[in-house]
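This week, work through this protein record:
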Amino acid sequence: MHKRMGEAVARVARKVNHTVENKTDSLDLANCKLMTFPVGIYKAMRSVTEGIHHISLANNELKSLSSRFVTTFSQLRELNLAGNYLHRLPEELTSLLHLRAINLSRNRFRHFPEPLAAITTLETIDLEENEITEVPTEKLASMASLRSLNLRANPVGPEVRLLIRPLVPFDLLLSPEEPTPKA
């Protein structure tokens, strides 16, 4: 077990070093078995954080995202958090003034993450395979930049389906309705 853990830490270090040394605009820490965002990365990347526009933390074991993460990587344009255990987002997410796409599919959200509705630059929100039953229809309808909202494989109720379709000027992806069982 210690050997595997050491290998995972070394993989994260290599990926961070690659981003810093090459001054790339992306940090890919997908599939690294992270339970939290490693605090040491903030220090290791402090010289390049303003230039990071894309971060993938997909398929880890994250249960939360810290406000420090959001304020450190303030220039993000794309954030991939798919395949984690997230159930809420920090309010500070609203300070990501350049965020265009966020992938939160395959997480544990029961409610639509409210901070997303306040990010005026968002064009794509992917919430596929969560446990969301209701969405803030009016708030979503006022998001001028939003082009696509994926709510497939969520238990969105029929009343939401009826209300939201005529109000939203973007692509709304929903799973087909389950037929009502006959008595």
About this structure: The first strand starts at residue 26 and ends at 28. The radius of gyration is 18 Å. The mean pLDDT is 90.
